[in-house]
Design brief:
With 376 residues, the protein is of the alpha/beta class. The protein folds into two domains: 285 residues, 3-Layer(aba) Sandwich (Alkaline Phosphatase, subunit A); 84 residues, no CATH class. α5 runs parallel beside α7, α6 packs antiparallel against α7 and α9 runs antiparallel to α10.
Length: 376
């Protein structure tokens, strides 16, 4: 069915390989991923907000997973109670389904009509259940999340030193490598079934991760690799053999919504946008992204480093101890630095561009104060 500028898919499947390092498709044996990426639009480094995971405070009460997960589902950096998620936008169009092998995503799974979260099953069982549901129901939106790669990345970050993959996800015998390559095989199993059942030509398939992976394992917030992951879209009206230079995970929900003909879940000042450069009717060169998330992540890392240096300076000069209090309690600036511990307050900035500008003012002040200390 022709709709507007593009042919609307009948369903979208978002296939998540947890903790997928952005280099994995080139370093590992991922023939299915690489074949499909070439058949669609590929982004080697899709950026997401730092994968911080507070378990205390208001965020810990609201969400059971790290920042990128609710951000992806809500399509905005400005998380607030009562926000809609992508699955809510498909409620009137058929059955929605989420299948995973962990309880970690309980807070982003509300609204799915079918919600399977079984921690003790394998990644293969997750894909098999997803396939069975696609056989049984008309599912316009299905999310299949394979947790094992992320788990293995986390485990090897503190495994015993005698293993060659100790703090090295690419090391010989790495269980992370095995889990990612198995996920690629399972992706092929899903695609084969879609083709056998005649659903492939009408399916929008999105393959990515919820966050990146440190080469030492897991996703520490100060590691840039934690905030990037590969992403591709393939399906009706998606440009073939196209690579885009930049994408943000906040853009994913509004882009899926635009391709599927539904409203985006949120349109506030922190929301991403429908990236039309994924369409075969729009030239890829037309994309001009402000790269907000890349900038914010850089600001967060610099703030944390400067704050640590100021606290060390406070050991010999109590002024610097006071400076931290002044900055964090808005005594020197009209707004606070919007750091990760204030994540649920970011909406108060109004829009992402202003948040970046407010942060920049404080970073400049911190640099200036530290330069005074170093010159004395």
């Amino acid at each position: 069915m022709q709709t507007g500028l593009h042919k609307r898919p009948e369903r979208v499947i978002v296939f998540i390989i947890d903790g997928l390092h952005w280099k994995a498709p080139e370093k590992l044996n991922m023939p299915v991923f690489n074949m499909l990426a070439a058949q669609g639009t590929y982004i080697a480094q899709s950026h997401m907000i730092v994968p911080h995971h507070p378990t205390v405070g208001e965020y810990g009460q609201l969400h059971s997973s790290s920042f990128p997960n609710p951000v992806l589902q809500e399509g905005t950096l400005f998380l607030q109670r009562g926000h809609k998620m992508l699955q809510d936008m498909f409620a009137a169009h058929g059955t929605t389904a989420f299948v995973t092998n962990t309880k970690a995503y309980a807070s982003v799974s509300s609204g799915f009509e079918i919600n399977i979260q079984e921690p003790d099953i394998s990644d293969e069982a997750v894909v098999d259940q997803g396939i069975a549901l696609l056989h049984q129901y008309h599912i316009p939106y299905c999310r299949i999340h394979l947790q094992t790669p992320g788990n293995e990345g986390r485990f090897l970050s503190y495994t015993s030193r005698e293993f060659p993959y100790y703090r090295n996800i690419w090391g010989a015998g790495s269980p992370y490598v095995q889990a990612v390559e198995n996920a690629d095989r399972l992706l092929g199993k899903l695609v084969s079934d879609l083709k056998q059942t005649g659903k492939w030509e009408s399916t929008l398939l999105v393959v990515t991760s919820d966050h990146g992976q440190s080469e030492q394992g897991w996703h520490p917030v100060i590691d840039k690799d934690s905030t990037m992951t590969p992403l591709f879209l393939v399906g009706p009206s998606i440009a073939v053999n196209r690579q885009l230079p930049y994408f943000e995970h906040t853009d994913l929900s509004p882009t899926i919504a635009g391709l599927m003909g539904v409203e985006p879940p949120n349109t506030d000042g922190g929301a991403g946008h429908f990236i039309k450069a994924v369409l075969d009717t729009v030239p890829g060169s037309a994309m001009d992204h402000p790269r907000y998330i890349q900038t914010i992540n850089r600001q967060l890392n610099e703030y944390n480093a400067l704050r640590a240096r100021i606290m060390i300076a406070g050991e010999t000069d109590t002024y610097y101890s006071s400076l931290i209090s002044y900055l964090e309690n808005e005594l020197l600036t009209p707004e606070p630095f919007y750091h990760q511990d204030r994540f649920l307050e970011w909406y108060k900035s109004g829009n992402t561009a202003h948040l970046i500008a407010a942060n920049q003012l404080i970073l400049e002040q911190m640099r200036n104060e530290l330069s005074k200390h170093s010159s004395t």
